[in-house]
Amino acid sequence: MTGKDHPTSSSAVVDLKNDEIALERLGYQQVLHRSYSLFENFSTSFAALYFVGGVRVTFTTGIAAGGPLAYWTSYIVTCVFTFITAAVIAEVCSAAPTAGSIYLWAAEAGGRRFGRLFGFIVAWWSTTAWTTFCASNTQSTVNYMLSELTVFNVDFPTDTSSIKFRALQWICTEVMLALAAWINLGSPRIFRYVFWLSTGAVFLDFILNLVWLPIGAHETYGLRTTHEAFMTTYNGTGAPAGWNWCLSYLATAGILIGFDASGHVAEETKNASLNAAKGIFWSTVISGVLGLTAVILFLFTTPPIDVLFSYDAPQPFVPLYAVALGRGGHIIMNILSIVALWLNTAIAITAASRLVFAVARDGEEGQPRNAILVVWGVSALITCTILPSAVAFTSLVSAAGVPSAAAYGLISLGRLTLTRKEKLDAKWSLGRWSKPFQLIAVIWNAWVVAVLFSPYEFPVTAGTLNYAPIIMAIVTIFAVVSWYLTPADAWLRQELIEQVAAASTEAADS
User: Cβ(389)–Cβ(462) under 8 Å?
Assistant: First the structure.
C-alpha cells in the first residue's frame, strides 16, 4: 500500500517522504512499495524464527546432547546472548535500513580498508544461508506430512535410506517450495495478509500446545516429574561428556538464527530506521521468551527419552501427537504445523529475495520479481540433492545457520575494531552499551559457529560427518575470489560504501 493506493494522513505522507529522503542519502532511489508497518516488519523475523516449529525440529537433537538439563540451561544462555546480538544488529540496521541490508552493514563495518571484502563475504554467506534455509524449511514441512505414513501404518518406507521415500520427499518438497515462491509474486497489499496469517498460525500453534498437550499427555503416557524434566542427563551423541553437553547448542542456537529478516524488508517498511530495528530486536526477544516456555512444556509432556527416540517417523512429534491427542487431535495439530511452516517458507523467500534483489541492484539493475525466481530456482536445485543421498542434503542444509551467525559476528567485530570511532546515526541506539554488546556478540557468535561446525554423532564416519565447515570454506573462497576478480566499479563500489558510511554517521557526528 502506498499513498496513491489509499488516503493517508498528512503525518503518514511526511513519514513516507522522510523514508525516501533517508534512502536517497544512502545512495538509492525508492523502488519497492513502502507499505509495511511495524507489525509486518516484526512478523518477517517472527515468522522466520517460528519458535514453536524450531523447538520441535531441534528437540530430539537437544535431548540427545546432554539431556533435558543441558537443553533448557543452554537455551537460557542462548537467549541472553542472542538478545544482545540482535540488539547490536538492530542498531546497525537503524543507521542503514535498506533492502538486503546485511552485506552493506558488513561493508560499512569493515571501513575503507576491508569494507568491500567484508561486503562480498557476507553477501555470499547470507545468500547461502537464506536459500538453503528455504530448501530445508520446506523439507521440514514435508516431513510432517510424510510422518502420517507411520501413524496410519501405510505400507511405504519412511527411512531416508530408501530411494522410494526420498523420491516422494523430493516431489512434495519441490511442489511446496514452488507454491511458497508463487505466493510471493502477488502484490504487496495481498502479501501483507501472509504476515498476519503466519503470526496468527504461530500463536495458535503455541496456545494449542500449551493447553491441549498437557491434558493429552496426562491422560495417556503421563507427565514427566520435575526431576525428569529438569535434572536428567543423557548422552545420545557418543561424544565425550563435556562436549556432549556443548552440542546442546546445536539445537538451541539454531532456533533464534535468522532475525535479520526484518532488515531485508526495511526498504518496504514505513519509518524504517526505527521500525526495522524494533522488528529485529523484539521478534527475537518474544520468540526467545515464548520458545523457553515451549521448551519447558515439551520437557514435561513428551514421553520418556527412550520412548521418544523409538518413534520411527521423519518428524517424531507427529506420532507423539497421535499418542497424546488421538488421531483426530493430532491431524489438527499436524495441519496447523504444516500451514505454519509453509507460511514460514513463503516469508523466508521474501527475505531471501530482497537480499538477492539488493545484490543485483548494486551491480547493474535488479527487480524483486526476478529475485524471487532466482531464490526459488536455487532452492529447488538444492532440494534435488535429496535424491542421491539423504546425507548430501543434510550436509548442505546443516550450513544454513552457520553463515548467518558468522555474519553477525563479523559485523560486530568490524564495528568493534575497524570502525570503532565512527558513532552510528541510529534512531534505535544502544548508547554506551554499544561497544560492550559488540564484544559479547563477537565472542558468542564465534562459539555458535564452532559448535555448528562440530560433528553431530561420534565416532565420526562418512555418514555422520558434518560438512558445514567444508561448505562454509568453499563459499568463503568463492567470496574472496569474486572480490579479487570483480572490478571495483562493477559491484559494491567504494563510493557507495563511503556514502552509506557517511549517511550512517552524519547526524551522529554533527
Answer: no
Neighbours of 71 (CB within 10 A): 29
**CA neighbours closer than 13 Å in the CB half-sphere of residue 58:** 33
DSSP structural state of residue 265: T
How far lies 135's CA from each of 27, 177, 262, 317, in Å? 33, 7, 20, 21
For 163-210, what is each residue's pLDDT tens digit?
999 999 999 999 999 999 999 988 777 888 898 999 999 999 999 999
Q: Which helix (H) or strand (E) holds 488?
A: none
Write down the pLDDT at residue 233.
Answer: 95
* Domain assignment present for 7: no
User: Average per-residue pLDDT in the chain?
Assistant: 87
Residue found by looking up cell 509474486 in the block:
185
User: Is 340:205 a contact under the CB 8 Å cutoff?
Assistant: yes
Domain carrying residue 111: 39-497
Largest interatomic CA distance in the chain? 71
Q: Quick check: is 22 in a domain?
A: no
User: What CATH number is associated with residue 45?
Assistant: 1.20.1740.10
Tell me if 274 is assigned to some domain.
yes
Q: Is residue 28 part of a domain?
A: no
Residue 266 is classified by DSSP as G
Integer angstrom CA distances of residue 17 from 12, 189, 262, 358, 475: 9, 20, 21, 21, 39
Cα angle 344, 53, 259 (rounded to 5 degrees) comes to: 55
Q: How far apart are CA 469 and CA 29, in angstroms?
A: 38
pLDDT in tens, 281-291: 999 999 999 99
Please give the tally of structural domains in the chain: 1
> Which long-range contacts does 83-87 make (Cβ < 8 Å, 24+ apart)?
83/281, 83/284, 83/285, 83/288, 84/437, 84/440, 84/441, 84/444, 85/408, 85/412, 85/440, 85/441, 85/444, 85/445, 86/259, 86/280, 86/281, 86/284, 86/285, 87/281, 87/430, 87/433, 87/437
CB atoms under 10 Å from CB of 197, counted, come to: 16
Q: CA-CA distance, 439 to 294, in Å (whole number)?
A: 30
Q: Confidence class of residue 394 from pLDDT cuts 50, 70 and 90? A: low
CA distance 74 to 163: 37
Res. 393 pLDDT band, cuts 50 70 90: low
Task: Report CA dihedral (37, 49, 447, 266) to the nearest 10 degrees.
Answer: -20
Q: Identify the bridge partners of residue 65 per DSSP, sorted by sequence position.
A: 235
**Prior bond of 388 cis (ω within 30°):** no
